[in-house]
Design a protein that fits this description.
Length: 165
């Protein structure tokens, strides 16, 4: 299965507390990959070497990136192993949120970074998709904005948990 983000997302005119702004609707890219996570995962969608059999990552137990990577791995029939430093007892007993969604996509979630292991046929993707390959999708977003907005002067606000975007 191949997933691509070739169609630019629309800009929606919005108003909040008397301030007009444009909202880039990257939530419409894909049901499993939206916003900055979709942009950061874009490179990997068609550039996983054939010898790679699984994705390995790490981070927060309710990370959006964890869910996006689990959906990516499931879509491409790859294994997915995710390491979280700590998993609260309540979540272990009753998974919810992104943890539950990732588990439903087949993620193997392991507590403890010290257990992190990356095998020969596995690809390590850093926490929050904070990796060099994210540049590809972020650049694509920038070019879409330039195409849509032209030479007008705008202030741009982006989400940035790991600082990658």
């Amino acid at each position: 299965m191949s997933i691509t983000f070739n169609t630019p997302t629309p800009l929606q005119k919005c108003r909040f507390r008397g301030i007009d702004f444009l909202l880039k609707r990257d939530d419409l890219l894909h049901p499993d990959f939206s916003g900055n996570k979709a942009r950061k995962i874009d490179f990997f969608l068609n550039n996983i070497p054939p010898e790679i059999k699984a994705i390995v990552s790490f981070g927060s137990i309710q990370s959006n990136a964890m869910y996006s990577l689990s959906a990516f791995a499931a879509s491409y029939n790859l294994g997915f192993r995710y390491y979280a430093n700590h998993i609260p007892k309540l979540l272990k007993e009753h998974p919810e949120g992104n943890m539950d969604l990732a588990l439903r996509k087949g993620a193997e979630i392991i507590e403890g970074y010290e257990k992190l292991f990356v095998g020969e046929s596995e690809l390590l993707i850093k926490e929050g998709l904070a990796c060099e390959e994210a540049y590809f999708g972020i650049k694509k977003l920038a070019l879409e904005l330039i195409d849509s907005l032209g030479n007008k002067d705008y202030q741009i606000f982006l989400p940035s948990g790991t600082g990658t975007t």
